[in-house]
């Protein structure tokens, strides 16, 4: 098992555990979205641009 | 003689710290951070973020470190014209700071880095935009690790925003009490029950607060147990969920104290225009670098001062006015106006460890010029501050003072006196001039057209 340096702020035990649980669920959404866009691509439907530069103008509204 | 001083707000992170030498701001980077710093630069992340206006720019300098033993190098960051704090921001300013933090985290992850903190104090407004000022906030991302700054993000951004949106805008002031953000159990308790129907708030605040309580006496060695526990996809899902939760939070500035002040005054258009013209002329003449507009409302007069090239901080007590002002800054892409919420009768104190982490309002001055327009009657009459003390206050904060005297006969003052005894025998033009002449030389005075008000330009003695 590899150990990396501990964070300099205490991330909180509860915050860590709940984060992993919530994120597992949310990650599923990301995975489904990714495969859905693959399916659409297969049928020739252009996916919406998910490029990071979509928000590169830092338009924070 | 060189004078080196470490900044008192910059002691927590062992990666490095800020110091000033002969008035110039530098950041020392320690060897412990050298690998992460190299990745930040070599991966192109630094350049990308600076280009997007999301990260403060810096240059490498050949300066000896302030503390040589742990030192790796010294950089000189671009200086922020005025440091402000989250409890001084309007709703949209805090929201934009939150979204900037998440946007940075998303971009960092794509280049295998991650934010190791998500403090609202690391965000400042430069050129009208929320910008990360801590160059040392990044670390190399390790696949499988959860986001160490998740709790901090929820406390510093999500909880106060949700409370402002769903409960009361004034709850932003909780940030003034809790320097590490609003405790999630408190937020969960204060938020209306309907927020449990909002998936983002349910999970990131209510359930999160419950988990904190449940595990409060248990230790989880985060990086040992977390490693491998969270895929990159899961982390992306988490960041995107926080982003969409924040984006959905809204607040409309309505029904507040001064929201429609200008529609509700006794001034005529010509008085208003005359005042604007005088502020513009006098600022153009004195060319201040930094102006504080004290009681700036939605920033109409701040913009006149800013037209001289001055960086103008527009303070007002009303979060609705500050919100409107900030929306104009964004819409017009204005770069030298910073709207902030401030109660002049109880300005931001020094906060944090040793009362030295966050500067008080006064410690962030004095400035070249202050505007005090249509504000003196609120301080002298509503708040009972004697005129000599008002003169002392302004003299402590500015060299040039543009101040409007609103006489008792003015209908706005009459309104303030309507329900109380008039205990202000000295509140006259003569009394005002005598009190202020103790601390200032009156350089100009002009009667504001079509009104009984007088505008003064004074210079501190």
Features:
heterodimer, A: 61 residues, mainly alpha, 1 helix, B: 461 residues, alpha/beta, Rossmann fold, 2 domains, 7-stranded mixed β-sheet, 5-stranded antiparallel β-sheet, 16 helices, 16 strands
Task: Note down, in words, how this protein is organized.
The complex is a heterodimer of chains A (61) and B (461). Chain A has 61 residues and is mostly helical. Chain A has 1 helix and no strands. Chain A has one helix at residues 13-42. Chain B folds into 2 domains: 86-248; 261-460, Rossmann fold. Chain B has helices at 34-42, 45-51, 91-110, 150-166, 174-177, 184-190, 199-214, 222-226, 232-248, 269-286, 300-306, 319-331, 376-382, 387-397, 411-417, 429-437, and strands at residues 4-6, 16-21, 24-30, 58-60, 71-77, 113-115, 123-126, 129-132, 138-140, 290-294, 311-316, 337-341, 367-372, 398-405, 440-447, 454-460. By secondary structure, chain B is an alpha/beta fold. Helix content of chain B is 38%, strand content 18%. The two termini of chain B are 29 Å apart. In chain B, the strands form 4 sheets. Chain B has a 7-stranded mixed β-sheet with strand order 12-11-10-13-14-16-15, sandwiched between helices. Chain B has a 5-stranded antiparallel β-sheet with strand order 1-2-3-5-4, with no helix packed on it. A two-stranded antiparallel sheet of chain B has the order 6-9. The radius of gyration of chain B is 24 Å and the shape is globular. Chain B is built from 16 helices and 16 strands.
């Amino acid at each position: 098992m590899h150990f990396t340096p501990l964070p300099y702020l205490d991330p909180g035990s509860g915050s860590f555990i709940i984060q992993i649980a919530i994120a597992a669920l949310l990650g599923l959404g990301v995975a489904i979205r990714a495969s859905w866009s693959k399916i659409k691509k297969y049928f020739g439907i252009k996916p919406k641009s998910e490029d990071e530069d979509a928000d590169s103008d830092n338009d924070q509204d | 003689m060189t004078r080196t001083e470490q900044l008192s707000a910059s002691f927590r992170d062992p990666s490095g710290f800020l110091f000033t030498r002969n008035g110039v701001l530098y950041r020392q980077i320690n060897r412990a951070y050298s690998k992460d710093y190299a990745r930040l630069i070599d991966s192109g992340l630094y350049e990308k973020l600076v280009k997007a206006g999301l990260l403060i720019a810096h240059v490498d300098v050949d300066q000896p470190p302030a503390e040589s033993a742990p030192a790796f190098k010294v950089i000189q960051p671009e200086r922020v014209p005025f440091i402000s704090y989250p409890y001084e921001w309007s709703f949209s300013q805090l929201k934009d700071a939150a979204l900037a933090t998440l946007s940075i985290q998303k971009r960092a992850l794509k280049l295998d880095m991650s934010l190791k903190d998500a403090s609202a104090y690391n965000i400042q407004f430069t050129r009208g935009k929320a910008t990360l000022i801590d160059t040392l906030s990044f670390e190399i991302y390790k696949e499988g690790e959860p986001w160490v700054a998740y709790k901090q993000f929820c406390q510093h951004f999500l909880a106060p925003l949700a409370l402002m949106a769903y409960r009361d805008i004034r709850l932003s002031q909780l940030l003034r009490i809790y320097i590490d953000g609003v405790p999630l159990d408190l937020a969960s308790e204060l938020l209306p029950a309907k927020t449990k129907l909002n998936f983002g708030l349910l999970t990131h605040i209510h359930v999160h607060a419950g988990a904190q309580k449940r595990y409060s006496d248990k230790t989880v060695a985060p990086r040992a147990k977390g490693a491998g526990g969270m895929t990159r996809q899961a982390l992306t899902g988490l960041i995107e969920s926080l982003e969409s939760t924040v984006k959905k939070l809204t607040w409309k500035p309505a029904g507040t104290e001064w929201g429609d002040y200008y529609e509700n005054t006794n001034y005529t258009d010509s008085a208003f225009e005359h005042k604007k013209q005088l502020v513009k002329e006098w600022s153009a003449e004195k060319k201040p670098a930094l102006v504080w507009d004290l009681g700036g409302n939605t920033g109409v007069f701040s913009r006149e001062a800013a037209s001289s090239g001055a960086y103008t901080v527009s303070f007002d007590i009303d979060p609705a006015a500050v919100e409107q002002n900030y929306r104009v800054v964004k819409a017009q892409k204005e770069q030298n106006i910073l709207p902030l919420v401030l109660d002049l009768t109880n300005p931001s104190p020094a906060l944090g460890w040793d009362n030295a982490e966050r500067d008080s309002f006064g410690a962030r001055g004095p400035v070249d010029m202050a505007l005090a327009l249509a504000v003196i009657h609120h301080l002298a009459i509503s708040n009972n501050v004697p005129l000599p003390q008002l003169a002392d206050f302004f003299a402590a904060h500015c060299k040039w003072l543009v101040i409007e005297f609103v006489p008792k006969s003015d209908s706005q003052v009459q309104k303030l006196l309507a329900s109380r005894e008039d205990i202000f025998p000295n509140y006259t033009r003569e009394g005002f001039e005598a009190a202020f002449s103790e601390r200032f030389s009156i350089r100009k005075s002009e009667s504001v057209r079509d009104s009984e008000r007088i505008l003064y330009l004074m210079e501190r003695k």
